[in-house]
Amino acid sequence: MYYDIKEAKHIDRYKLEITFADGKRGIVDLEDYIKKGGVFKRFSDFNYFLKFYIDKELFVLSWPDGLDIAPESVYDKISEHVGSSV
């Protein structure tokens, strides 16, 4: 599926460069997830955030304790910034 995450690279703070199966690539800033609270409050521990990886079966951005972010959410966050000055 085109939402499948193929590569994720740390850029700066909570910014990751993501490459999707359809070839789309962009930078996503996940810092605002901290404000969502709940399980994402864990991101306030920056060392925890840096433990991200791509689940090789589901192709989602994941963390060692089972937390993950739906790839379509990441895809949409990148789309929001395409063509913007942000």
From TrEMBL:
<protein>
    <submittedName>
        <fullName>DUF2442 domain-containing protein</fullName>
    </submittedName>
</protein>
<dbReference type="InterPro" id="IPR018841">
    <property type="entry name" value="DUF2442"/>
</dbReference>
<dbReference type="InterPro" id="IPR036782">
    <property type="entry name" value="NE0471-like_N"/>
</dbReference>
<dbReference type="Pfam" id="PF10387">
    <property type="entry name" value="DUF2442"/>
</dbReference>
